[in-house]
Amino acid sequence: MGKAQKLVQWDPHNIKEKLLEKYPPKVARKRAKQIMINEALENTTPEIVANVRTIPGIITMRGCTYAGCKGVIMGPTSDIVNLVHGPIGCSFYAWLTRRNQTDGINETNANYMPYCMSTDMQDSDIIFGGEKKLAAAIQEAYDLFHPKAIAIFATCPVGLIGDDIHTVAKNMKEQLGDCNVFAFSCEGYKGVSQSAGHHIANNQVFTHVVGKSETEKTQKFKINLLGEYNIGGDGFEIDRIFQKCGITNISTFSGNSTYDKLASANQADLSCVMCHRSINYVADMLETKYGIPWIKVNFIGAEATAKSLRKIAQYFGDQELTDKVESVIAEEMPTVESALKEVFPRTKGKTAMIFVGGSRAHHYQELFNEMGMKTISAGYEFGHRDDYEGRQVIPTLKVDADSRNIEEIHVEADPELYKPRKTPEELAALKEAGLEFKTYAGLNPDMDSNTLIVDDLNQYEAEKLVELMKPDLFCAGIKEKYSIQKLGVPMKQLHSYDSGGPYAGFKGAINFYQEIDRLVNSKVWSYMKAPWQENPELSATYVWE
Amino acid sequence: MLLRHTPKEITERKALMINPAKTCQPIGAMYAALGIRGCLPHSHGSQGCCAYHRSTLTRHYKEPISAATSSFTEGASVFGGQANLLQAIDNIFTVYEPEVIAVHTTCLSETIGDDLPQIFDKARKENKVPEGKTVLGAPTPSYVGSHVTGFSNMVKAMAALAEPSSKKNGKINIIPGWVEPSDMEEIKKLSAMIGAHINMFPDTSGVLNGPLTGEYKMFPDGGASIDAIKDSGSSIGTLALGEWCSADAARLLDTKCKVPCSILDMPFGLKATDRFIDALRKVAGTSVPDEIATERGQLVDMISDMHQYFYGKKVALVGDPDQLIAMTEFLVSIDMCPIHIITGTPGKKFEARIKEITKDMGHKVNVKAKGDMFLLHQWIKNEPVDLIIGNSYCKYIARDEDLPYVRWGFPILDRQGHQYFPTVGYKGGLRLLEKILGVLLDRKDRDDPEEKFELVL
User: Fold this and answer.
1) CATH number of the domain that A130 lies in?
2) Which end of chain A is more exposed for a tag (fewer CB within 10 A), N or C?
3) Which residues of B touch A484 (CB under 8 A)?
4) Are B55 and A478 within 8 A, CB to CB?
5) A189 contacts B212? CB cut-off 8 A
6) pLDDT of residue A194
7) Does residue A92 belong to the interface with chain B, where contact is any CB pair within 8 Å?
8) pLDDT digits (tens, 9 = 90+) for A293-326
9) The domain containing residue B345 runs over which residues?
10) Same domain? B62 vs B114
């Protein structure tokens, strides 16, 4: 697909029709509801169907509940022993493959991330049950490492054969005495995507870890950063900025986390939510149980970073902090602006498509906007309707059979630890001044009209979209990378960042500008055809001199 | 130190596996199925299995890996996955139009007892399988064996398609085992040089080492065609490379189609390649051309030229049984000393075979099937080595212990070349030696004191 053939004009209705035309009728009906044209309808906003079952046989980008729980949420926890109860594969595939970075590589803090631990269930365990083996494995892990905590993860067969991992965990916790043992019922077949796994993980961390720290955090301006996973060092860059501003990040869920950091989350005075999808309910629970208000932030994009810092400063209402934040922004922005100025002439007017996650398909549009690039189609792999349409739809979401089996925990104000951080009057004044709490408007309002929003995009639709809309860049994950690039279109992984990053914060924005410039302007895309393929006619024979 | 919690002292573990030297069956079945022309592998289980296998294979090959899944939900896990698989078969043939769907099971569908042949039968009765298209299946429970077992089971399912015939076609079946696309290409090249007419399956060359042309082919031109696989029942004989990967399929062809078989080692290194070439020319009834003798001579030449750098060097090895057996033999044949050898795949025969190969080496050898890389690391701490050979996970051990390291095996997630440059055959042997020498001599150049630093080595 040469750049010369690029079409500028396309009609989203036509494209939608073309995406659906080859499907069997049942599939087409279902997919039609997950493909939305972003347009203003009379008196209503368009609705998208999301967080519903993947269609068997349709090649999805999605993974499973276990991947969301063990891989995404608990993967970055450095000093918790993560022990997978199941056949070997599940543990193997989640072994160091998600690029979570940790600075827990020192003598005082244990780092088990390079270790892959499993009960390696055999057929005899499937037949006779695996509880004894699990208990023995916990004991062996304890004897070897003496960790603060051991987390147990269920894989598909564990749920089927009925191993009671929670009881095993409880008994072992009592037996070991100085090690917190807890378990996650995150069997891969639960839910419809990774999202269910995030939920299961966060609920258990909230129940078994948060509030358990014995050290009191006494710093000023204490926040939690929720839904940041330190892929490619994003969290390091965000923490660098926080430190510079004098903001104390008590606990990141769960990038570069430690047991004690997670356990201290109740001591923060504000929760900042990055990835709304994976963690908004934890923010709600922290507020209900401990009295910590939450705001939505975004550190992807230099402008978004500045805006988020200002929101945090506004919340604390401290002049010194406000001044410091402004001076940090003033100090950081010139380097960002000069980097942007360098690439802008080469990136301006280019188009992108983003199909990842539950928030990145939204957040990364900030960076593309800064570069003058337009996102012509986007969607989430495992988002819910509120991630598209905004939190106001949450009360209207229907709980289906697949959501019903994911545990909801109900929390109440903690009799000892609940402490409202602001009085109702203070909160009202902040709201009056424009600081919004507990709000997220979703992806749709930030996308241009007549763009295509596609939930749970699959391989066939991805190929069609690229063929029909000819973007300059496609963003998704490793499984999609090479089929897109075979078409001659650069593809950026926005799960693992293609071994790049960080892309968050100010320095991350610079990295991203340069990376995208490299990708969309790489010479390689001009090498698709050999000279004899471009001019196959043999019009003259070579004349030897 | 990245693995600083690994103690030198070895304690017995009965329940806990740490840093496995294996993964589960389905990924092997998926890789094998990609060696069938026009085939879409299908994972009958939760969608996470398929996502993980596709991701791992994609990272290893840097190529698109298409595969579908039955996307089990909790309901399917309780009531059985038949409806999901029927729907999947219908959707796949309608949307992606492959020639073949190769289904493998997972721990989930095996635990609930889904019966693939019965579901296929129903799919055919309901006209969900278009005329002329093929659906095959292999049981690959993740709680038995390893990824190698899954590969073997899928290859066996291919062999089950073979049709018995009294009329022989003069060809020789080669079942190459879990080797790289480049290796499969090399096996075809060597066979052509000998003049042997071969029928090789699976064959991932041309599938997982494709060019970038601006065109995406979901089903590339490579792979063994279903017709060829069916025709393997008419061959005069089968050479199966690797007991763990290929023997079951070869034996099935023998019992079902009366095609006699020889089980050989994978042709890595001098002696195993010698046996392969010799066996092939005997079954084919042809003579080995001088070009191959020259390739062999070049390998022997390099062994002789550089022998001083190989001699007596201790090596730690981790990987899969068939590969490790051939590699151990190769290392011993050039007077290196493989002293710690681990596979995650079960099999007492493996330990016996390694002991046999290393019996005259003059060193005590630690060998374990069903072992893990945590134990390998502990062995290395107790008796250090000069070189480690294995997949990308070895880099953590290599860095911590400051060891020269050659990447070889599966998966290789951080280096390139395995899909393009073979390590089978004599040429492959040369490449292995080049890689081994490269890291050993780089280390010498790094560590030699200035007064000992030399230009010529």
Assistant:
1) 3.40.50.1980
2) C
3) 216
4) yes
5) no
6) 96
7) yes
8) 999 999 999 999 999 999 999 999 999 999 999 9
9) 298-451
10) yes
Amino acid at A110: A
CA angle at B388 for the pair B383 and B391, rounded to the nearest 5°: 135
| The two three-digit tokens of residue B237, written as one number | 């004989």
| pLDDT surpasses 50 at A257 | yes
- Chain B CA closest to residue A67: B48
Q: What share of chain B is helix, strand, coil (3-state, %, to 5)?
A: 45, 15, 40
- In this structure, is residue A137 part of a structural domain? yes
Question: B279 lies in a domain?
Answer: yes
Predicted pLDDT at A345? 98
Are residues B410 and B338 part of one domain? yes
Residues B154 and B183 in one domain: no
A435 domain residue, yes or no? no
The pLDDT tens digits for A336-359 are 999 999 999 999 999 999 999 989
- Given a cut of 60, whether residue B227 has pLDDT beyond it is yes
Task: Please check whether residue B263 is in contact with residue B246, taking contact to mean a CB–CB distance below 8 angstroms.
Answer: yes
Say if B20 falls within a structural domain: no
Claim to verify: residue B198 and residue B287 sit in the same structural domain = yes
State yes or no: pLDDT of B348 exceeds 50.
Answer: yes
ipTM above 0.95, yes or no: yes
Tokens 């990038």 found at: A255
Q: Which residues of A are catalytic?
A: 64, 67, 98, 198
Q: For Cα atoms B164, B165, B167, give the angle at the middle one, nearest 5 degrees.
A: 160
**pLDDT of A6:** 47
Say if the Cβ atoms of A487 and B75 lie within 8 Å: no
HSE of B241, CA atoms in CB hemisphere, 13 A: 29
Is residue B140 domain-shared with residue B53, that is, in the same domain? yes
B186 and B113 housed in the same domain: no
Q: What is the pLDDT of residues A513-536, one digit of tens each?
A: 999 999 999 999 999 999 999 888
Where would I find the beta strands (DSSP E) of B252-313? 261-264
pLDDT at A3 over 60: no
Q: Which tokens go with A62?
A: 């999605």
- Reading the block at residue A177, the tokens are 């005495």
The answer to whether residue A375 is domain-embedded is: no
- Looking from the CA of B131 toward its CB, the CA atoms found within 13 Å total 0
CB contact under 8 A, B16 and A83: yes
Are the Cβ atoms of B91 and A57 closer than 8 angstroms? yes
Domain shared by B130 and B275, yes or no: no
Q: B interface mutation test: which of A1, A465, A479 has the most B CBs within 10 A?
A: A479
Secondary structure letter of residue B392 according to DSSP = T
Q: Is 0.90 topped by the overall pTM?
A: yes
Structural domain boundaries, residue A174:
65-188
C-alpha distance from B428 to closest chain A C-alpha (Å) = 27
Q: Is residue A138 part of a domain?
A: yes
